[in-house]
């Protein structure tokens, strides 16, 4: 197993990240910085990252759950996370004091 890791690491050492990926990343960051308010971006990022974590946690509960019924393992993490995400987003909307942007 260690040989496989060393081989992969040695292969990755010789590769270079193309310059165009860094330039594209800088332009995307500048676009978000100029055209989107900081608070709105923070709320969108928080919602998406929390949703991804909730999906991962739900999958873990469904696969590794010997205690609760399957229905509870499927729905409980989503319900709890939606309540916590809503409360957190409302807190940050109040903190940053920005108006809702309708697309």
Notes on the structure:
The chain is an all-alpha fold and 103 residues long. It has a domain at 37-103. It is built from four helices and no strands. The protein has helices at 2-13, 19-35, 38-63, 70-96. Helix 3 packs antiparallel against helix 4 (70-96). The radius of gyration is 21 Å and the shape is flat. Mean pLDDT is 76; it is low at 1-7.
Key features of this structure:
103 residues; mainly alpha; 4 helices; 80% helix
Largest sheet: none
Alpha-carbon Rg, integer: 21 Å
Percent in helix: over 70%
Strand segment tally: 0
Large-scale geometry: flat
SS element count, helices: 4
Head-to-tail CA distance between termini: 51 Å
- Kindly name the structural category: mainly alpha
SSE order in H/E notation? HHHH
The quaternary organization reads as single chain
Strand content: under 5%
Mean pLDDT: 76
Low-confidence stretches: 1-7
Write the layout of secondary structure elements.
Layout: H1 2-13, H2 19-35, H3 38-63, H4 70-96
Short description:
The chain contains four helices and no strands. The protein is an all-alpha fold.
